[in-house]
User: Fold this.
Amino acid sequence: MPEFQDFVPRHRFQPAITLSPDATLVAYSGNASGRYELWVVPVAGGEPRRLAGFPDRAVRQMAWTPDGKELVFSADRGGDEQYRLYRVPAEGGEPVELSSGGDCQRILAAAPFDASGRFLVYAANDRDPHTQDLLLLDLEQERERRFTPPPDVVFEPTGISPDGRWLLAAGFRSHTDIACYLIDLTNPDPEPVCVTADLDGGVFDPATWAPDSSGFYLLTDAWGDFTAAACYRLADRSLTPIAQPDWDVELLDVGGDTLIWSINQAGRSTLHARRNDTDLTLPGIPPGVVTALTLAGDGSTAVLLIDAATRPTELAVLDLNHGRFRYLTDTRPPALHVTEPIAPELVTYPAADDRQIHALLYRPHGPGPHPVLLSIHGGPEAQERPVYARSGLYQHLLAHGIAVCAPNIAGSTGYGTAHQKLIYRDWGGIDLADLDRTVRYLHTLPWTDPQRIAVAGASYGGFAALSCLARLPYPWAAGVSICGPANLLTLAQASPPTWKTFVATVLGDPDTEADRLLERSPVTHADTITAPLYVIQGARDPRVPQSESDQLVHRLRERGVNVRYDVYPDEGHGFTNRNNEIQAYEEIAEFLIHMLR
Assistant:
């Protein structure tokens, strides 16, 4: 029987890639050395080359300078999400820090440079921890221009128009309330102007500038429940649809006269492209999820990160001119070279209302009856999709005869804005009802064992897993929570300052809704938890502080519940250290196999 590490990918990637201006190199963040570092690899193929990294920091975003001679990148320490900015020569050398003023939230623009390479755009909350400003850094004169957002808006920059006049940014209030802002850089004292203010709200998420500066492309739900691709023209302030599928458009890029975009079709990514208003015929891509996408300036080549249930995340190249797809990397672990990985089946079953719940169901070989892991995604505004999940945990469990059911309950993305908003201010309500229906569905399958069902999740998924153990009356075999909130009131009170409006919208206002938040908290119902529990927490987690796990573990241990509690002192919200990640999932696997055998 293969060991867990036989299923672990050779390395993993951050969901960020960037092509050099001449489209010969792609830069990415990978953890082949144990930490997420900056690497480049030839688009034509060849050995990757490490450019920069730190023993205590993880590289997150990166971008080439317009002349292709340098890269800028962001990095945080141990997952604390307090980013610093650096530049490094493309040929190699020591990184030089660009940021000043210590640690804070710094977010690089999607395209952070102007055409000359003199100005760099990013967002930061260095002036006020509660406010994320836009900053325009003059690299020649080492001076900054600062633009502040309206009240309760969080700025995230998109980039400067090719003609250098306009700075484009997104203004976030929540994931379903995003506006487009323009700043006229020729004005010595400009005010950010919301150019989508008259469009009745919703999602207007800017993606990239048109090459001629006549407007910009964006993702929007202006015409329905799903996200479409559109173009906003500056001259007449018009919004024109580019693609309006019955699913969400997720990623969009432009190169010359070519547009490329990805659509989330029932969880799988499909790619589409158009050149001079003519649709291109693209080669098929593996059945998985495109997590990052970038197009060459001449529109001939696209590079993507693609993740599939049966193959870990890889860099891949799409030749748009000749219709060819090829992998650029191979991170497959040893087990996938000798065994056939199991792909999930898409299943649906009724919710308590008129909705259908969609889930990915992984069935092991053999007749059963099989134990089942109910795996709940994070977010909650996220989606369980056919990817190589949790460093190979799913495939390892399947090899041991354990099935995995991964549902997309109320609040999941991918099924329209209305479905996504169902969970707003209702954590532990409609979502828990959907999870109850999921367990009932599993009980109807002839090849499952209702007495051997465990539940696991990370972040929001950890909260949902704890809620299942505490509030659903089933004989749970075990539970796992990774950075899972136990107390919604203290979670809301301790959230990062720039998240105040977002938290009040999606979770609830701790000042006015304290009673409801406490009533829905797993810690309030901790006395009903009896199943063995494994809790993992990062000590540097800025989103779900360690105190969330501490208070629950203390309550359970007072009652004699079997709780294993591992705190990683050098991790934040998830894992940045490869050895920590492998160790954690290996021990989770051992825990679940032991409890479900």
Summary: The mean pLDDT is 94. DSSP finds ten helices and 36 strands in the chain. Residues 578-596 form the longest helix (19 residues). The longest strand covers residues 448-458.
